[in-house]
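Example 4.3 (complexes with small molecules)
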Amino acid sequence: MTARILDGNALAQTLRADFKKRAEALATRGNRPGLAVILVGEDAASQVYVRNKVNACVQAGFHSEKLTYAPDVEARVVLAKIAELNADPRIHGILVQLPLPKHFDVDAVLKAISPEKDVDGFHAENVGALMQGHPRFIPCTPYGIMQFLADAGIDLKGKEAVVLGRSNIVGKPMAMLLMQASATVTVCHSQTRDLAFHTRRADVLVAALGKARFVTADMVKPGAVVIDVGINRLPDGKLCGDVDFGPVSAIASAITPVPGGVGPMTITMLLANTLEAAEREAR
Ligand code: NDP
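Answer. The structure with NDP bound is encoded below.
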C-alpha cells in the first residue's frame, strides 16, 4: 500500500479562501476580524512564526497588530497591553507567542487574556470548556488535525487512536478531541513502557514528540492513518517530522508530510478561531 498524502497546503488554501469571504462579509458590517500577536524577545523561530501568522491575517483580509518587546521588558508592561487589547473592539483574538523569557510567569500571562479572545485556546476556562465537550476555542494544532481527518473522510468512531506526546498544546487536547469523536484513545509519553506495542495497534496514530523520524515502519499498523506533528531540524538544515516518512508512507493508508502537513493547518485554524470570535461577537 502507498499512503494517500494529506496535503496541508491545499486544504489550508481552500479553508482560507472561505475565511476571506466571511471576513469581508463581517467587514462590510463594521466587524472586520482582528488578531493581535505579542512577541517578546528575539528568538529566531518565534519571529518566523509571528511573521507567518501576521501575513496569513493580512492575506485573509483580517486586521492584524504585531506588538514586539525587548527580551528584558517588565511583565507588567505586557500585562497592561493585554488589558488594553482585551477592551479593544477591533481585536477579536490575542496571541502571546511562546516561549516567553524566563522572568515571565507564563500562566499569569495566559490567564490575563480574556477567555473570549483566547484564540490559542490555552486559558484554563477554555481548556475546561473543551474538556466538558463544548469548546469555545480549540487549540489550533489539534483543531487542524481534526479538519484533516474530516476532510479525508476518516470516520473515527470505534477506531483505536494513539497519541504520542501529552503536552498542553498538542497531545492532551488532541486526545480529548479524538475521544469526543468516539475513538478509543491511548496517550503515550516518555515514561510509556513498550511504546511500539501501543503504536502497532493504532488505526490513527498522531506523533507529537519532537523527535526526528522516531516513528519507524515497524511501529505502524499497515493501513493506519499517520499524522505527523513534529517539526525537527536535521544537521543539514532540512526540516523533518517525528515519522520516518518514506518507509511509513509505504504501509500507511494516509499520512501528513513535513513540511506541508500539519504546519499550514495550524496557522489556518488560528484564522478560524479569530474569525469565529468575530462572528460570535457580530451575532
Ligand atoms: P513538548 O516537548 O511539549 O512535548 C513532547 C511530548 O513528547 C511530551 O509529552 C513527552 O513526554 C513526549 N516524548 C518525548 N520523547 C518521547 C519518547 N522518547 N517517547 C515517548 N514520548 C516522548 O512538545 P509539543 O507537544 O509542544 O510539540 C511536539 C512536536 O510538535 C515538536 O516537534 C513541535 O515543534 C511540534 N509542533 C508542531 C506544530 C505544527 O504546527 N506542526 C505545532 C506545535 C508543535 P513527557 O511528557 O513524558 O516528557
